[in-house]
Amino acid sequence: MTGPAMPVTGASKAPGPRPLPRPMSRPAPPRPVRATVPGPPAGSGEPAGLPRLPLDMEKLLAARLHAVKVRPYLACALFALHVVEDRSVPTMAVDAYWRCYVSPGFVARTSVEELAGVWVHEVSHLLRDHHGRGERYAREQEEHGPGERRETGAPPAGGWGRSETGAPPAAGWERLRRNIAADFEINDDIYGDGLPRPAGAVLPSLLRLPDGLLMEEYLRTASMSGLAADLAWLDCGSGADGQDRPWELGPDGAHGLSRQQRDAVRFRVAEGIKGRPGDAPEGWRRWADEAFHPPQPWRQLLGAAVRSAAGGPGVGEDHSYRRPSRRSAGVPGVLLPSLRRTPPRVCVVIDTSGSVSDAELGSALLEVAAISRAVGGRRDLVSVISCDAVAGVAVPLCRAENLALIGGGGTDLRSGFARALRSRPRPDVIVALTDGQTPWPSAQPPCRTVVGLFPRPGRAVDEENPGYVPDTPPSWARVVTIG
Q1: What angle in degrees, to the nearest 10, is found between the helix axes of 298-310 and 358-374?
Q2: Given phi > 0 = left and psi -120 to 50 = alpha, else beta, which region is 240?
Q3: CA-CA distance, 25 to 293, in Å (whole number)?
Q4: Of these four, 30, 236, 275, 289, which has the most CB atoms within 10 Å of its CB?
């Protein structure tokens, strides 16, 4: 009797015929599974808990076109920016290589007009070289500037997170201060005239500070620790403060501009502003004047020019018998005078015509005091003449504490030069402070001449005679540009 067959395992399994393969069929579709996708990073422009939005490039570029329409002098710079989509950026940010990092969520919830303002805001950081200036400030200053000291309420240390009060840690506080100061510099004059000011724009009035200062001036004079918690979200990128971010592509990344290309963009924008200065606010005009012509220490230059003219041969020299000449020993019985140097006399001719502003006249009065110091502080040797089309009376500076500059008409400094040369004793140096829109003496005066020139744009200024071009100062005058 044969018992039940026992199962055989392993190699002892008896070989048998293999079952025929079943016909192949298409695999069943996978079951729908809810993917666990991490939400947007904290502080980014993406709303938490919502699906990620694609970047609305059409809306973003339409905003740039609107910015170009209302700020045409910035067109070259706006078109030079290369867009990089990045969801870790709170709003929009730039790096030093003219890449613009954009949050899709921020673009989705912001109007075209406000986006245009952000375009102008970010490109302003780059044009004004806030990244380079921020780096220089960090190198030149101590580790903690005003408002950064621990005891003044600056955020405590502790990584890149947030403190209990919501303020950024100390590691990011220095960066935030520079970003705030850079925003103070540009936000006071970029909005309006087609660019609405967004709610929450960072303005100097938040700290009761005046408008029109530079980033470095705000950093040196203001404590910003009170803004730390409210502005912890603010991040315009390394283009605003010079400190690299983890999400930036860096110098070797794609679509970055070289130093030569960045300088070329700035140069074209500056030339466009200077070509049509009425289209740009005062802050941009000042930037265009200084972008490629750094401000000269013109007060020192003017003082040096006066000292050089006063120290030239023949100036302030006269013969005197107070000390006999050493050559008298070679001529027995004859007393020869020696050549003695006396302090030079300076006559300052101030242009008081209608084309010179009150601010420039005030600056001219300050320079008169500086001129007296340049000749040894002898105020009694410095006289002042007001001159528009007619010269006034020469007033000694020692009696001119309440000097009134009279004028306001046309300009003809030739009468001022003539009045100065008629003074007794005759001056050794004539200093003319003018905007240059005047006829000049046809002959060189018999004394040294220094011209302090208030700058003017190189275009016609006479509406009745558009072809009028002012004469340049004569070659025999030493010219120093003021301002």
Answers
A1: 50
A2: alpha
A3: 78
A4: 236
Q: What b/e sequence results for 183-194 when a residue is b if at least 16 CB atoms lie within 10 Å of its CB, and e otherwise?
A: bbbbbbebbeee
Q: pLDDT band at 225, cuts 50/70/90?
A: confident
* CA gap 474, 441 in Å, rounded: 8
Residue 481: the pLDDT is: 81
CA 461, CA 410: separation in Å to the nearest integer?
Answer: 13
Q: Specify the residue for token string 């803004």.
A: 227
- Residue 94 main-chain phi, psi, to 5 deg: -130, 150
For residue range 437-472, what is the model confidence (pLDDT) as tens digits? 888 998 999 888 888 888 776 554 455 566 666 678
Q: Map residue 227 onto helix, strand or coil.
A: helix
The secondary element (H helix, E strand) that includes residue 234 is none
Candidate from 153-167, 354-368, 413-427 with smallest mean pLDDT: 153-167
d(CA 93, CA 118): 9
Q: Which of 130, 179, 175 is nearest to 148 (CA)?
A: 175
Alpha-carbon distance of 402 to 387, in angstroms, equals 17
The Cα 41–Cα 321 span in angstroms is 90
The angle subtended at Cα 418 by Cα 412 and Cα 424, nearest 5°, is: 145
Phi and psi angles of residue 376, each rounded to the nearest 5 degrees, phi first: 90, 10
More confident residue, 246 or 310: 246
Residue 244: what residue type? Answer: D
Distance, CA of 452 to chain centre? 25
On the question of pLDDT at 105 being above 50, the answer is yes
User: Strand pairing partners for 452?
Assistant: 433, 480
Is the pTM above the cut of 0.70? Answer: no
Residue position matching structure tokens 């046309």:
410
| Mean pLDDT (the chain, rounded) | 76
DSSP 245: -
Strands of the sheet containing 92-94, edge to edge, are 82-85, 99-102, 92-94
What integer is the mean pLDDT of 265-277? 85
pLDDT band at 344 (very low <50, low <70, confident <90, very high): confident
